[in-house]
Design brief:
25% of the residues lie in helices and 42% in strands. It is built from three helices and seven strands. Strands 1-2-3-4-5-7-6 form a seven-stranded mixed β-sheet. The longest helix is centred in the middle third of the chain and has 15 residues. It is globular, with a radius of gyration of 14 Å.
Length: 139
């Protein structure tokens, strides 16, 4: 069974996935920040096992809802769970009245977001020495 649950506060399952993917696997140090307290957190479950997570919040600078911290555990990649997670986030944003969604994508996975209808905008930038680019999708 596949399901996506929404949380008002950072749940332990999301914290564990982000620590596994971003801290231990990719070496990021500044993983948790103030945005966690103002975000809606989504966790994707497969047969009750937490497999992926992301967060969604309004961003005044982008003048849009922004999805962030998109992560799927390594053992579950290649099964389209990332696509399911993004679709769930888009649905959540529509429920909040949003008509667009922005994200800062790691450049190495830019093609994944493009395949889901996101378009890159602006110059690449570094976040903890990792190249990123802003992307946007209008519903």
């Amino acid at each position: 069974m596949i399901e996506c649950k929404s949380f008002d506060k950072l749940p332990d399952d999301a914290r564990a996935i982000r620590e596994e993917v971003f801290v231990r696997e990719q070496g990021f140090q500044d993983e948790f920040d103030d945005k966690d307290s103002i975000s809606t957190h989504l966790v994707f479950y497969v047969d009750g096992v937490p497999t992926g997570t992301c967060r969604v919040s309004w961003d005044n600078q982008q003048q849009s809802y922004v999805i962030g911290r998109v992560a799927v555990r390594k053992a579950f990649r290649g099964n389209h769970y990332g696509t399911g997670l993004l679709r769930a986030a888009e649905k959540e944003v529509r429920k909040m009245g949003g008509k667009a969604l922005a994200l800062a994508a790691q450049v190495r996975v830019k093609a994944f977001y493009e395949s889901l209808g996101y378009t890159a905008s602006g110059e690449e930038f570094l976040d903890e020495f990792c190249p990123h680019v802003w992307m946007r999708k209008v519903f």
